[in-house]
Amino acid sequence: MEYLEHIVLVFISIVLINNLVFTKFLGCCPYLGVSGRLDMAFGMGLAVTFVTTLAGTLTWLIDHLFLLGTALEVTRYVCFILVIAGAVQLVEMYLRKFFPTLYEAFGIFLPLITTNCVILGLCLFLNLWQVNDILMAVVLSFGAGIGFTMAICIMAGIRENLALADIPECLQGAPITLITAGLLTLAFMGFAGMIK
Amino acid sequence: MADKQLTVGNTFTAGIWSENPVLRLLLGMCPTLAVTTGTKAALTMGLSVIFVLICSNLVVSLMRNLLKPHLRIMMFTLTIAAFVTIADLFLKAYLPEMSAKLGPYIPLIIVNCIIICRAEACASKNGPWISVIDGLAYGIGFTVVLCILASIREVLSTGRIFETVQVMPGGFVPWAGMAMPVGAFVTLGLMLGLVNLATKKKA
Fold first, then answer.
1. B3 within domain boundaries
2. Which spans in A25-72 are helix H?
3. Nearest residue of chain A to residue B104 (CA atoms)
C-alpha cells in the first residue's frame, strides 16, 4: 500500500511539480510551435505521450540490461536515439493507416517528434535520477508525456484567445508566446515544494 | 537560400543575423533557455554546439551522395549522436565541474533542431568546404545570442558576470526571478520583440 502511494505521488510530482516543460525547458520547440490550435496541440500531446512511454521504458530496459557498468556505456546516446526514432516510425505508420486526417494535419511535425527534447531528455533523466525500478520508470515516462500534453494544451487554449487580443506589433507571434510561457511557469512555481 | 550563390560572406551574415537560429528561426530553444543562467555555462554550450555542428556538417556533406532519402534523417541523427558523445566525454574529462552543471543538456544537443536543420538545408546539398563554413557561421550565431541572453540574466540575478567580475554597484538587490525559468522566457521574448522592432525600422 505504501508503495502504491509512493507511485501516485511520483506521478503527480512529474506532471505538476517537476513538469519537464516548465522546470527543465524540455520540449520547447513544439510547445511554442504547435500550440496554435487546441485540437492540434492535444493530438501532438497524445503522440508524444505514447512515444515517451514506449521509449522511456525501452531505454530504461536497455540501459539496465546491457549498458550499465560495461564498456558499452559510451554508446548510450546512440542507442537511445535509435530507440526513439524507431518508436516514432511506429506511431507514424499507425496514424497513416488509421487516422489519415490527423496524419496529414501533423505533416512535418510527426517526424520531428524524434527530435523532441522531452523524450530524449526523459530517457536521460531516468538515468540521472537513478531510477531502479521498472514500474517507476514506466510511471515517470507516462507522467512526463501527460505533463507535456497538459502544458501544450494550456498554452494552445491561451493562444487561441490571444489571437483576438490587441498586441503591440513588434511583440506579435513568437515574442508574446514566450512571455506567456514565462507567466505560465511563474504560475506553476506555486506547486513547488508540495511534494518532496 | 537555394537560388543565391553561396559564398563565405553571405553564409556568415545569414548565420549571424538574417537567419540567426535563435532570433529568426526559433530553433534550439531548450538549451537556449536552460543553460543561460550563467555566462560560463552558455559559452561552454555554445562552443560544444559549434564543434558538433562543424563536424556533423562535414560528415553529412561527404556522404550526401550515398544517402537514401528515407533513411536520411536517421543517418543525420546517428552522426550527430556520435559527435555529441565525443563532446560529452571531452567535457567530462577536462571540465568535470562544467559537465556536471550542464548535465543532460549536453546530450540533448543531439535533438537540437539547429543541427539537423543545417544538415538538411545546407550540408546534404553542398560540398564539404561551404558546409564547414556554414556550420561555423550558424554555430557562432547561436553562441552569440546565448551569451547575450546569459549575460543579461546573470547580471540581473547576481550582479556579476563570469561568476567573478562585479558589474553592478554595491547596493544592487539581486533579481532572483531572472535565475528562474520565468526570467529566461520573458527575457528572450523581449529580445525577439526588440529584434522585430529593429528590422522593421530598417525596412
1. no
2. 28-33, 38-62
3. A124
Are the beta carbons of B186 and A179 separated by less than 8 Å?
yes
Report DSSP state, residue B46.
H
Record: contact B108-A121, CB cut-off 8 A: yes
Q: How many domains does chain B have?
A: 1
Residue B194, burial from CB neighbour count under 10 angstroms (0-12, 13-18, 19+): middle
Q: Is residue B28 part of a domain?
A: yes
ipTM: 0.80
Domain assignment present for residue B2? The answer is: no
Question: Cα(B36)–Cα(B144) distance, rounded to whole angstroms?
Answer: 12
pLDDT tens track for B70-129: 778 788 888 999 999 999 999 999 999 888 888 888 888 888 888 888 888 888 888 888
Tell me whether residues B196 and A27 touch, CB distance under 8 A. Answer: no
- For residues A77 and A59, the answer to whether their CB atoms sit within 8 Å is no
Q: What is the pLDDT of residues A163-177, one digit of tens each?
A: 888 888 888 878 888
Alpha helices in chain B (DSSP H): 8-13, 29-34, 39-62, 72-94, 96-102, 113-118, 128-158, 181-202
Cβ pair B29:A25 closer than 8 A: yes
Q: Which three cell numbers stand for residue B42?
A: 552558455
For an interface test with A, give the residue of B36, B190, B192, B201 to mutate (most A CBs within 10 A). B192
Q: Which of A32, A81, A93 to mutate to test the interface with B (most CBs of B within 10 A)?
A: A81
**In chain A, domain spans:** 38-182
Residue B120 belongs to what domain range? 8-202
Q: Is the pTM of this model over 0.80?
A: yes
